[in-house]
Amino acid sequence: MSRALISKSLRPAQPILECRAAFGLRRAPAYIHTSVARPAAANLNPNTISAITEREKLITGEAGPVADGPTAQAQKYAGQPLTSAIVADIMKGEQILTGLNGPISGGPAALVQRIFDAGTGTKHHSGMLDSATISSITEAEKKLTGSAEPVKGGPTAQAQKHANEPINSQSLHDITEGEKKITGGQRVKGGPTATAQSELSRSRS
Fold first, then answer.
1. Above 70 in pLDDT, residue 78?
2. Would the pTM of this model clear 0.70, i.e. be above it?
3. Would you kindly state where each structural domain of the chain is located, as residue ranges?
């Protein structure tokens, strides 16, 4: 791979495309137990770490993981149940690669956040602009633009400015301004701003 191509792939303003490869957790059949059991936490198994590595390589353009990156962070906890602290460490590893203050759509941090949420059996509504919420905002943006990548200055970009911060009036305002940029000045039902507001409301319920 040329130096120019690697340099291009490292630009923080270019979130990577969502990987299309199927990757999920096997759900236990409901009939095994007569009582409702709490879902087991997902582990950082070899398949999960491999998936993290593939997403890391999409960011760096390198043939393998880099020091202190998301794969390196995940390997420190290999075989252990995923926790919010481990997700945070993997996110820090991703930030070393991207230079961004928060996760990117389809990146290693977004992947482990989804697996962590699936392992708990329910989506965690934190009321914050975490990786899962920003990914949802990105999906809402894609539906409006038809583009595979977020628009510069759009709602995803505005949300990433407030990554890992509580959703508040200022961040909602910024996301709305980003949404108006791609809609011609209007907010859309079910759009990025509505997605962020929904997350905030659910966190309070």
1. yes
2. no
3. 43-120, 128-203
